[in-house]
Amino acid sequence: MSVAAVVLLFAALWGAAVTVVVASRGRLLVATWREPYVGVPVVVIESDDWGPGPPDHAAALEALLAVLDRHRDSTGRPAVLTANLVMAVPDGEAIVASGYSRYIRRPIDRFPEVAAALRAGHGAGTLCPQLHGLDHLHPDGLLERARAGDEAVLAWLAAGGLDWEALASPLQGHYVDGSVLPTRVVAPEVQAALVAGGVEAFTAFWDEPPTSAVAPCYLWDDATERAWAAAGVRYIQTAGYRCTGRDGSGHYVQDPPWLAPGDRSTAGPRYLVRNVMYEPRDGRGEEGAWEALTQRVAEAQPAVLSTHRYNYSGGGAAALAGLDDLLGRARARYPALRFLASPEWGRWIERGEVADPLTGERPPLAPAPPRRKVAAFLRRLWNRHGKIRAIAWGSTLVVPAALLCLLLDPRPGRGGGG
Ligand SMILES: [Zn+2]
Questions:
Q1: What is the CA(327)–ligand 1 centre distance, in A?
Q2: Are residues 140 and 51 part of one domain?
Q3: What is the largest CA-CA distance in the chain?
């Protein structure tokens, strides 16, 4: 067989493979192309479950923010923790005294060490507060279980009701009632009151309302989104899907199972997506996070780290050392690195600009130039979709696609190649 014939054969094979992908996944291709693509490496650090807690939570937060302050990006700005806050915990003693007839809260102000650490971080530019919820449980559901004589709940309330992580997992949802399985939908007016209460407490504490929110346990529905939108929330933080409840066995029900950054909810706010897990307490440690971070940079999307408070409180020295190392590696590899808080990332998607919520500064952040965008687009498809990978392997289309990526964006995030 002549060289020309071989070339023709492969060209036909690749053309056929591209045709199959376009015909069967056309909408996916268009949606992926329309996602946001950033021109420089960006790291966002998302951390849930800060709020009322014992003094050692304050010490953990101070240690964490001190590490972030040592890491400066290409504009001289420190790494910033987007801290998602719970605004109150139950007052166990008062609830017991009420005979479990009333849900009584202890607000964040009653925990002066934590409140001071949060405010100090905000002042130093290492902490950007956002709303997790008024509570990290569903008050009516908790009372119902207490009245039914649930021994674990009664003991938990009698002990003060501070540590919601000690509750059974289904009870930790806020906008979904997990007092029974399958979970129950919470009425829209009840959800609206919870959101309004959370926003009111947040605004009273920070003198400004939250612009982004993330639901406890990633459990929320359309009614929650409408309540958030009505309260001024513009960005909904997600793990790339939404869970509207749990089934009879406690498994999460995903609806929809896939969200891309910038997708709009029917209520109006845009979804943001966490795409790097650094949760060493759950076995998701530094090496996996580093691999995911470099992959996100190659895809021209911000690396949005999910790293919950419990990694750092209660003896979190190793987790903190790992985060320190991760940020140091990112800075060394990507000299143009930028640190952003989640509301800034949302605003860039929405308006193409960033505005530091802490200082009001607006250093421009360019979208990816066309060459880099094409390479990043192909990498997103490759990294996300097993069937497209199978077609690319089977047809050897992976060879020209990889060469094209190398040609267009040979050192992703490190300059060169446009
Ligand atoms: Zn949480």
A1: 24
A2: yes
A3: 90
48 CA distance to ligand 1 middle (Å): 5
Q: Are residues 64 and 193 in the same domain?
A: yes
85-139 pLDDT tens trace: 999 999 999 999 999 999 999 999 999 999 999 999 999 999 999 999 999 999 9
Over residues 350-382, the pLDDT tens digits come to: 988 777 766 777 788 999 999 999 999 999 999
Cα separation, 278 vs 81, whole angstroms: 13
312 CA → ligand 1 middle, Å: 14
CA 137 to ligand 1 centroid distance, Å = 9
Domain count, the chain: 2
Q: How far is the CA of 243 from the centre of ligand 1 (A)?
A: 14
Query: Which of residues 359 and 12 earns the better pLDDT score?
Result: 12
Q: What is the pLDDT of residues 324-337, one digit of tens each?
A: 999 999 999 999 99
Mean pLDDT across 288-292: 98
Domain that holds residue 285: 42-351
CA of 310 to the centre of ligand 1 (A): 10
Answer for the pair 147, 212: CB distance below 8 angstroms, yes or no. Answer: no
Cα(215) to centroid(ligand 1), Å:
7
Residues 245 and 108 in one domain: yes
> In this structure, are 259 and 289 located in the same domain?
yes
Neighbouring CB atoms inside 10 A of 231's CB total 19
Quick one: average pLDDT of 208-236?
Answer: 97
| In a domain? residue 361 | no
* CA of 78 relative to ligand 1 center, distance in Å: 25
Which CATH number belongs to the domain containing residue 92 in this structure? 3.20.20.370
- State pTM to two decimals: 0.95
Phi/psi region, residue 232 (left: phi>0; alpha: psi -120 to 50; beta: rest), is left
Contact, 39 vs 102, CB < 8 A? Answer: no
Residues 112, 246, single domain; the answer is yes
Gap from CA of 308 to ligand 1 centroid (Å): 8
